Amino acid sequence: xxxxxxxxxxxxxVAKAKRERAEKRGPFSRFALFIRQVLNELSKVxxxxxxxxxxxxxxxxxxxxxxxxxxxxxxxxxxxxxNFLFGTGNLGAGG
Length: 95
Known about the structure:
The protein is mainly alpha-helical.
């Protein structure tokens, strides 16, 4: 089995960053470098299709609803328990 490492195109990223850091740069030059790096990273972003976006949104909404149900259920259970221990003495709601 060969150990092939997927390297970014051209120069090694770390070596390039160290070389650029070693050079003296003014504030405008550093800002321009930052903008170039941001644009470079944004070019790597893959935009989801409409179907994927809808699927991801539904997954998030279902997860949030499930978590809300769990937290609400625990809140009711612990609230009833605290009410029983320190309140009226019955497990029913109300006080």
